[in-house]
Specification:
Blueprint: H1 2-29, H2 37-49, E1 52-53, H3 54-61, H4 65-77, E2 81-86, E3 89-97, H5 99-121, H6 125-148
Antiparallel strand pairs: 1-3, 2-3
């Protein structure tokens, strides 16, 4: 039993290292817009999920509200986002991606997809099939976990 736990621990360690390397490689491949990692993540979230309150964006991105306020102000100056009134609550303000911001988001997504495709293309056919099955399965597991939390 003890050996099995060690094997599982080693496998988990190998997997997390591989995921970290893949994410870093794919992120570094996306250069459109010359955005910082934080700005790219925030514009990506707005591009995927649509407008949201600044406090919600800060919470989702794991940063303080003052830091997100500074980031949104910089992105607003660059024309990537804008603040708009919340139709459901006249006192609230939403942050939304502009057309320019969405264009940068789409270009960055295309760059990341191309980088991942190049990586997958270097694998054997069985490895490619395994990756194409495993990654969506992991994404579903993450979504299920977030839905139940």
């Amino acid at each position: 039993m003890h050996k099995r736990v060690m094997d599982t621990d080693a496998l988990a360690e190998d997997l997390i290292i591989a995921v970290e390397q893949m994410v870093r490689y794919v992120r570094q491949s996306a250069v459109a817009g010359g955005l910082s990692t934080a700005a790219a993540s925030a514009i990506g979230r707005l591009g995927r999920e649509g407008p949201c309150r600044l406090s919600e964006l800060a919470r989702a991105e794991g940063v303080s509200q003052p830091n997100m306020t500074q980031l949104v102000t910089r992105m607003e100056r660059a024309g990537l986002v804008r603040r708009v009134a919340d139709d459901n609550d006249g006192r609230a303000v939403l942050v939304e991606a502009t057309d320019s911001g969405l264009h940068v988001f789409r270009r960055r997504r295309a760059e990341r997809a191309q980088a991942l495709d190049l990586l997958i293309g270097e694998l054997t056919e069985p490895e490619q099939q395994a990756v194409r099955m495993a990654l969506p399965a992991l994404a579903r597991a993450i979504q299920d976990r977030q839905t139940h939390d």
